[in-house]
């Protein structure tokens, strides 16, 4: 994948919210994240619970003790917030962060330096080509799955990369299915997310965020998707705060007796 430059932070198109904006995928999404990289950590810092919730999902992987001798994969690691959550929870684990946005990854590499952390620039659809090989003991996908073109294909890849019995945590904006939670999401986007994203010059990405959440699986649908992908012990776990009914961790495991080796 070619390296792309971080943008100047200038909005590259009209910043008025337009309900008809298409969802961003592939190179368009990578380009939008490249542009948003410089303001991303500032904006997430304003989101109460963002980092604590990532650490909660890291703990929900259920890896014992400090993670010594374990290999963990952070898919869609972005600027490294989810990687940092894994490193704080499992300080002795070997952690590989993968992201398709050069701009986001540049931030991650600059902010999170440790011999136990490796960052790989690749789309999750092309991990083998990028030299990312299993088995991993656990995979965290934080705010990723909603953004990919084919979530089922990504889940199949994750299952194959996990060791038998290995754990997956999908940390995601995935609505409960209750009208009240959808209304809170819509209100938060209208009052905070879209204005802040537009001021930062990244209106296109944050309009994508709003719409990608309402159009993605509900939490029960995501649980069923993991089951269809062959994960077992699948559970939906809630988050506290304003994210109640809006952000969940959906955890599951590769069956212990799964056929086929990790690739
Ligand atoms: C919302 S950010 C989340 C970053 C980080 N996990 C966190 O919790 O802060 C989503 C990240 O997923 C990456 N991403 C989206 N689709 C991807 C794909 N198909 N392959 C690799 N990375 C992808 C984006 O570039 C972006 O950095």
UniProtKB/TrEMBL annotation:
Keyword Membrane annotated: no
Gene Ontology MF annotations: methyltransferase activity
Keyword terms of this UniProt record: Methyltransferase, Transferase
One BP term from GO: methylation
Region (Disordered): 1-24
Keyword Transport: no
Domain of life where this protein originates: Bacteria
Position of the signal peptide: none
CDD domains assigned to the protein according to its UniProt record, in alphabetical order: AdoMet_MTases
Family annotation (PANTHER family): TRANS-ACONITATE 2-METHYLTRANSFERASE, TRANS-ACONITATE 2-METHYLTRANSFERASE-RELATED
Name of the featured protein: Methyltransferase domain-containing protein
Native source organism of the sequence: Streptomyces inhibens
């Amino acid at each position: 994948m070619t390296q792309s430059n971080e943008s100047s932070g200038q909005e590259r198109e009209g910043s008025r919210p337009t309900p008809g904006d298409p969802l961003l995928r592939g190179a368009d999404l990578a380009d939008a994240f490249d542009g948003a990289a410089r303001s991303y950590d500032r904006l997430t810092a304003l989101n109460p619970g963002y980092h604590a919730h990532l650490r909660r999902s890291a703990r929900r992987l259920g890896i014992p003790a400090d993670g010594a001798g374990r290999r963990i994969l952070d898919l869609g690691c972005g600027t490294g917030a989810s990687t940092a959550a894994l490193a704080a929870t499992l300080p002795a684990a070997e952690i590989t962060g993968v992201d398709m946005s050069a701009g986001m990854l540049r931030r991650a590499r600059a902010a999170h330096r440790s011999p136990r952390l490796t960052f790989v620039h690749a789309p999750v659809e092309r991990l083998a080509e990028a030299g990312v090989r299993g088995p991993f003991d656990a995979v965290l996908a934080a705010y990723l799955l909603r953004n990919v073109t084919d979530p089922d294909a990504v889940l199949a890849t994750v299952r194959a990369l996990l060791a038998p019995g290995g754990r997956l945590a999908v940390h995601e904006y995935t609505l409960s299915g209750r009208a009240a939670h959808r209304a809170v999401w819509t209100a938060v986007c209208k009052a905070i997310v879209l204005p802040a994203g537009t001021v930062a010059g990244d209106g296109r990405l944050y309009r994508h965020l709003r719409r990608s959440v309402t159009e993605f699986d509900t939490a029960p649908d995501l649980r069923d998707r993991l089951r269809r992908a062959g994960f077992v012990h699948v559970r939906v776990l809630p988050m506290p705060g304003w994210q109640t009914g809006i952000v969940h961790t959906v955890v599951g495991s590769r069956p212990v007796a799964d056929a086929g080796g990790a690739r």
